[in-house]
Amino acid sequence: MFQPHREKQSQRNPFFDNAKYLAIVLVAVGHVWEPVMEGSRATRALYMVVYAFHMPAFVIVSGYFSRSFAGRPDQLRRLVGGVAVPYLAFEVAYTLYRRWAQDAPQQAFSLTDPFYLTWFLLALFVWRLSAPLWRALRYPLPVAVAVAALASLTPRIAADLDLQRILQFLPFFVLGLTLREEHFRLLRRRAVRVAAVPVALAAPAVAYAAAPHLRMGWFYRNTSAQELGYGWWAGPLATVALGAVALVLTVAFLAWVPARRTWFTVLGAGSVCGYLLHGFAVKALQYWELVDAHPVLATPVGRVGLTVAAAGAVTLMCTPPVRRALRWVTEPRLEWAFRPAAAAPAPGAAGPPDAPDAPGAPGASGAGAPGRAVPAGAVSRA
């Protein structure tokens, strides 16, 4: 979801900004539940529901906004500035943070082994570069599913680039590449929105029943079936089954995302800031063992308090002042690093106009809000 740095707010698509903000709240809430869900089946069940679809939803929208990527110099420049630079900067920042917070000077810097939530930026960089290949294939989605299934039954895939995650989440990105504006319009139909209600009600109940039996590693998609203690055949089965669950829950989520401007629409433009910053607060719970020091945080009241605090904190991190303060690293201007861009191709000469990028990246305008055309303009190494 990248866009010109000075794009006017009136050009943005409210639907996708609303979706980005709501999804980033779920990401932050899910992360603070992690250290306190032990012993609470209900919290674990809610955590499973969130993890079943929130990253697939991010990846699908990332693919949707990558449809026109063809590797042109201007597109590569935006990819470097909007994805590679934030990845490198926050990879260093999280490493230094752990060195300081845990007095761990041995914590190594790594450009290829993503630290915590920076994996998504690295994955997006790789997926985006591969977009022209997937668009050239006759049957891209079945091929991507086959790649993900093979990855899920392949132990010991190297940690470099967090390749297991890149491959297992790949079908969602490729699906996004195949979507069109009319597909998002379908979500606004009354029948879809009505059907989303029983799905939303049933999901926690099903997760509650499955919570004691299902390993969370399936949702992280960063290990093979054998490494989770299952036979090789469980990997492809889980790829298809959990992929279907993710799609159903993503549809239910997006069906109820408002398509109009709301009080939180402006916060969607700063979702990359919320994504990259909230990890410091979450890691503080772990590094300083705050849950052990304050057992009240692991009580029902404490969990509710952490949920509200996480939602409030990530909301503040998405506000325009924070976005402006971090623009030098999340949306840097790189004129000094690149040669002057060539003249833009004539209208219609290179397919659709270049679209913004991913849901966790600097704000996106959409290719048109569902139902109304609008001008186009993030657990690895810890």
UniProtKB/TrEMBL annotation:
Residues 14-311 form the Acyltransferase domain. InterPro entries: Acyl_transf_3_dom, Nod_factor_acetyltransferase. It holds the Pfam family Acyl_transf_3. Residues 343-362, 370-382 have a biased composition (Low complexity). Residues 343-382 are annotated as: Disordered. The keyword Metal-binding does not apply. GO terms for molecular function: acyltransferase activity, transferring groups other than amino-acyl groups. This is Membrane protein. It comes from Streptomyces roseolilacinus.
